[in-house]
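Fill in residues.
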């Protein structure tokens, strides 16, 4: 069955590429995009359902956060995993392509946090359509909160920056949206009245196009509201499918030892499109600690310390959370009893207006370095 799905995807991609974009063709382009999204959805489902949870390879999520490595074959993903996990993991390294054939997890300790790194087989063009172990790799990426895209210097001293474009496209085809967020759309299904389209600001689609796309999606009666400007048909399709993964990429350029003439950081930033990148050499162990620190920062991790009521705070073993997390997240991480039997908390630190501020409810946002006492019902 999946063979057929892949052929159909290819056919539609070709049709999309050969259709000229203008007002008259826009609706049929949207329809092709919608059909493509549905077929890709089938592929993701097939890959994700294999061998239990944790994406296509059935990796058990552990640690405070998960980071997936993605890149073309032989860029040095496994070398990097071995370095970052300080010899606790051994993922085979070799000079031939497709050395890694399955997902290899490893644990990196950084600033008291445990970050699970997942080394994956190299991907190639067409991964999302099932080439190599592409579907499984992309399914594994879906369950990580940060994607480390690994590029490298080639032996001629140039960087394979064009691979970045391919990787982004493959991730996109697998329903993974990088460095963006859920579009601000509200859809309220109704029993009758057709499609009622309202919006804020300048929009790219008119009521007619929205209506036609909603009909393609078999929604006949609904209120559709765009609460931010310039929503694209792709964003509307994403919103309706609802299972897109919104995650972030950090780019690692490996093998800097092969660089022949220095390249200006501005040029690299321009080519990548953002400043979230670092150049390293796994071979010479260059910039590895910087990368380690970058990963910690990109994950937005914070440390909070527990102070059992009427005792000293435990400053040795912080609990690791994410920026923006609330007391509820903290309680949930300790034990669900802390939610059910919660009475109040006392908080010292940046998020408290005064030392030992009392919070009766769980929606208070905590900050890095906070010391917290949680009082439970007896
Ligand atoms: N010159 C140089 N070579 C490196 C560096 N890092 C890795 N290599 C070499 O590149 C080759 C591939 O390394 P791997 O770590 O196996 O690459 P991979 O990305 O895991 O490859 P696959 O598992 O096949 O996708 C090996 O011969 C490594 O020794 C580096 O920083 N500089
Ligand atoms: Mg490898």
């Amino acid at each position: 069955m999946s063979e057929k799905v892949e052929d159909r995807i290819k056919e539609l991609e070709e049709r999309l590429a050969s259709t000229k974009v203008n007002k008259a063709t826009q609706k049929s382009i949207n329809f092709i995009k919608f059909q493509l999204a549905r077929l890709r959805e089938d592929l993701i489902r097939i890959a994700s359902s294999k061998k239990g949870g944790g994406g296509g390879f059935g990796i058990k999520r552990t640690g405070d956060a998960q980071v997936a490595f993605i890149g073309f074959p032989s860029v040095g993903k496994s070398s990097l995993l071995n370095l970052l996990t300080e010899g606790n993991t051994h993922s085979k390294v070799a000079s031939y392509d497709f050395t890694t054939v399955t997902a290899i997890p490893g644990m990196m300790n950084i600033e008291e946090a445990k970050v699970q790194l997942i080394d994956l087989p190299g991907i190639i063009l067409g991964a999302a359509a099932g080439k190599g172990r592409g579907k499984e790799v992309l399914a594994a990426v879906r369950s990580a909160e940060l994607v480390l895209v690994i590029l490298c210097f080639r032996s001629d001293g140039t960087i394979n920056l064009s691979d970045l474009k391919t990787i982004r496209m493959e991730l996109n085809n697998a329903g993974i949206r990088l460095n963006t967020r859920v579009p601000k759309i509200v859809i309220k299904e109704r029993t009758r009245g057709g499609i009622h389209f309202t919006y804020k600001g300048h929009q790219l689609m008119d009521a007619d196009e929205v209506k036609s796309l909603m009909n393609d999606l078999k929604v006949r009666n609904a209120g559709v509201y765009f609460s931010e400007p310039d929503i694209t048909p792709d964003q509307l399709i994403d919103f309706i499918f609802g299972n897109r993964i919104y995650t972030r990429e950090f780019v690692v350029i490996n093998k800097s030892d092969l660089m022949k003439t220095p390249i200006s950081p501005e040029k690299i930033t321009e080519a990548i499109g953002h400043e979230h990148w670092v150049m390293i050499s796994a071979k010479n162990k260059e910039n590895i600690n910087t990368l380690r620190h970058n990963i910690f920062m990109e994950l937005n991790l914070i440390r909070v310390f527990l102070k059992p009521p009427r005792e000293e705070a435990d400053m040795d073993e912080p609990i690791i959370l994410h920026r923006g997390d609330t007391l509820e997240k903290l309680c949930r991480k300790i034990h669900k009893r802390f939610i059910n039997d919660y009475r109040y908390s006392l908080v010292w630190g940046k998020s408290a207006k005064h030392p030992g501020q009392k919070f009766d409810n769980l929606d208070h946002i905590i900050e890095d370095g906070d010391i917290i006492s949680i009082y439970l019902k007896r």
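The chain has three domains: 2-49+183-241, 55-179+244-298, 301-376.
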